[in-house]
Amino acid sequence: MPPLAFRATVLERRDYGCASEVIFRVGDGFSPLPGQFVHILCGGGGRIIRRPFSVFRHEGGIASVLVREVGGGTAWLRRRRRGDELDILGPLGRGFDLTGGGEHVLLAGGIGVAPLAYLGRRLTERGGKVTLLWGMEKGTEYGSLPESLGEEFDLHIATADGSRGKEGTVLELLSPEMTPGTHLFYACGPRSMLVALTERLSTAGLPSLQVSVEERMACGLGACRGCTVPAVEHPGGYLAACRDGPVFRAEELDWKRMMESI
Amino acid sequence: MEADDGIDLRVELAGISLKNPFLVCSGTFGNGREMSELVDLNALGGLMTKAVTLEPCPGNPPPRLWETPSGMLNSIGLENKGLERFLAEDLPWLSRFDVPVWVNVAGFSAREYVEWAEAVSRSGLAAAVELNISCPNVEKGGAFFSRRPREAAELVARVREVVDIPLFVKLPPLPGAMRETALAVAEAGADGLSLINTLPAMAVDVERCRPRLGNVTGGLSGPAIHPVAVHAVWEASGAVDLPVIGMGGIWSCSDAVEMLMAGAAAVAVGTLNLVDPRAVPRLAEELAGFMRWKGYRRVPDMVGLLRRRGWG
Asked: How many domains does chain B have?
């Protein structure tokens, strides 16, 4: 669908530890694919460019984003209350390809769980078998969100400090039977996590992996070329995270150069 | 367009007719295609294309963006697909719209600038050439020329010889040298000036002790640079009798009027397009309202009004 420019009324905010789900009303024409994002103007105070947020939830005229406070813009958005208005462009970008069959393994690093939860719901609706693997720093980081997502999905958690689930990163949760031959992989999280995952799956496994990348963006439409990621095509070339992505087939990206900028 | 109440937003720049005095700055609108999903290109006064180089250019390593208070740092580095594809794909596509197109020509040598500007002129699809001799993000590119008035004038003269359409020269703010440079490029045959390009700038991640931009340095745009741009327009328009397109951090109708009153014949919206692709039609409507309120009937009534009122 073409992107829309609209103002949305905040209906509710749910706090989950270090993150908040900001829930807002959307029109009938708004139908985001899993992995697509909304570009939100996050207040004044010298902040001039929009911030991109993956869609976390969408049904029945209501959508939400999951916001973790990392700076002034996210702090502003996290503090929205019922009745506040948001200035939004979206949905933007390329979402996940949902057409593959087999078992689906969703790997989330931290706040990267947002697009994957939305993806998981859509895959489940299509009759897919979904396993959600989620890595975080410590068990209490996201409040009651793990319980909430645990009711929807076959959820497994890893924590860096071992306070919940398995100790280590989300990759610790990959079991030997989860192989590229039988499973499809979808990931969103810090670049270091995505790089480690591509190494784990090795070159032969890359066709089974889709990743959603997080980059600072300006226009969100592919015009300014500010949010580029290194591409395999055209040596030395780039793809725009906002338009060509934010979801890429892993084999489209140049992981050696991705690694250099961690 | 002329409204019923006699408010006339039309302007003429070096013989080119614009529906309204708002263009979009090079690099902030792609080549129109991406933005056309959200805005009617026919509503623009004019469109300045993303800088195009003779050969395809991959651009600078990411990260390429960093927001600063009321500003944005970028180091895109002229990423573009090169002259051949631009002439074959983008320019013909743009020519379907009723909007004059300034093709922003960048180069890594004088020969490239000349060759490329000639090709643009020959295409018959561009209203004007905007010679980009002020991009802060490429080593050998424009900034070299704009820092040296004599070299800039020589380049402008060489390009002037090969183009049959109006030639605008895009300059950075040059404190202390704005007048001298404006005069030099005017004498060399420029038909207009675009003022200003981004300002060289940088930011540092102190946690990790590394530059915020992959290219280390970049160019600053946005409201933070607006007063600098107004000053540059003021200086240049006082020195030469050429139309000046004022640009730099225009975020509101009054920002645009400031430029006009300081001496700009038209203005261009830049970074704001990245936030609001529909900024130009919105600002054009606001400008009509301002003119109605203040009793200006035509845009030229406001152009250079400060000097006409005895300032400077």
From this structure: 1
